[in-house]
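User: Structure please.
Assistant: Input sequence and predicted structure:
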Amino acid sequence: MADSDGDFGPPSVKIPRLSEPAVDSPKDVIPQDLLKIYEDIDTVSESELIHISESESESESDSESSGDGNPPEVQGEEVEWSDVPNNEEGYQVYNKTPGLIAPPQKSEPIDYLLLLIDNELFDLICERTNNYASKLMKEDGNEKAHDWVELKTCELKIFVGLLLHMGHLQIPHIEDYWNKDPLFNMTCFSSHMSLNRFLMILKCLRFADDTEEDASETCKLKNLIHHFNKAMSTLYIGARDLTVDVPVTPHKGRIVMSHDPKNKGGKHGIKLYSLCDAHGVVIKCCLFGGEKGRMPVEDIVMELVSDHLFHGHSLYLVEFYTSLKLASLLKEGGTYCTGVLRSDRLPKGYDVPSLNQGQLVTKYSKGVAVCKWKDRRHTLYITSVNNNQMVNIKSQGKLKTRPKALVDHEYMINSKRTDDVFEYYPCEKLRLRCFKKFAVHLIQLMVLNAYRLFSLHADDSYSLLDFRLSIVRELLSLKRVFLTRFLGSAHHLPTRHSVNERGKALRKRCKLCYSQGRRKDTTYYCSQCPDTPALCLHPCFPRFHHSDLLTIVYK
């Protein structure tokens, strides 16, 4: 649960924190959205989209001038160094078996998703959304809210299915998903939910009651964060090797994946950090906002690993997080750390001259090794893992020798990143408030986690797209479809309209004639077609059923 400052996850280890200057969060800007029927829909500027922005190289130069929550350690007290390991304690071995504690009975994609997004979460969202809709109905001047119909779990699943499916179809505007123009004409949206209903659910979507004392953006997400962390802790045992992923941060009107070197956390001061294992599974998330958004990175990392200390985990960090202080704290908690070190965080007293190519120099302090190695340029890194030896690797067809710590670090940082969560993102078309964008991100993260778990345990092999499409079909209660180019008229027989009180058959406008600019009424229609179109018996009926248009037929 969240404390008053807005971070989540049970902190079992308390670390003294540096001074935390307050961050003022300006009010949301609410412009006119593309959907005028809901002028009060939760929106922000049109440029608030979701993208990936890897800015690690920029963070190096910016952090030196603007600060990143960690003052350079070179200004601290001098550290005692040794040329030999000075750690008398033994190396703790990780002895857990990673994987699902209780795999689902069935091995379908939807079964793995329901491990994370269960009926309890659906019921919670329905309850909070209905409460907010009732609050809107009591307000004066909100006419659209009076048309609200209570949201139920089955309808919420359809809403989530459509939201996920939007990420598969890149269309400029949200209403185009319901556009009946032949160039769009995606009937799976209009056949399951009207546009007005979808937008109304999107407007009223809530995950916590607004009546609570803390109505900040982070507080509105605490139930979703808590549910995710609780589900992962009870369902899954992570691998030995862990890494802290690049935080998701609002930046310049967008939500990006960036280290945010100036440590502003965007307009709302919100940053989402995630802890991943070697299989790419996110095992814990923490959301920091307000004053917590400027906490030192040591506190952030210790918060993420607080439930995984004293088990012998190996934590691999990018240079944004790495410091000697953090490595020492993790070592005291039975967790080992490896990461590239910035030169401005080099501890005082570490005097190593320039090296020749291939040369490695290591100095130790409190069981942590600070190493300097040169290939084409000098590289500083920290490791408390007992693997400070050289290994041979093949690079560009040549055999090279590199430190094993750097080889393992590069593999962990670059393999199975959570960037895949942005591949099928619907928020390019959705103008939402900040907390709803983070909520959509968390739902996408649950789908990605379900895919990782499915890949580890299921016998079938799915791509991420096929996995997501299978989930969408189940949420929309659809079966797989096949396509047929021609559907003979023998399968569709003409039917006469019913007669009126005077015994005359009703006549309706021929659909094919009308599409060609002619007005002609007919007493026949096709009862097998979805829209039961009225058609002239000849020649419109056979021409209509032998067109070149693809007809979707469900099994």
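Residues 79-89+322-414 form one domain.
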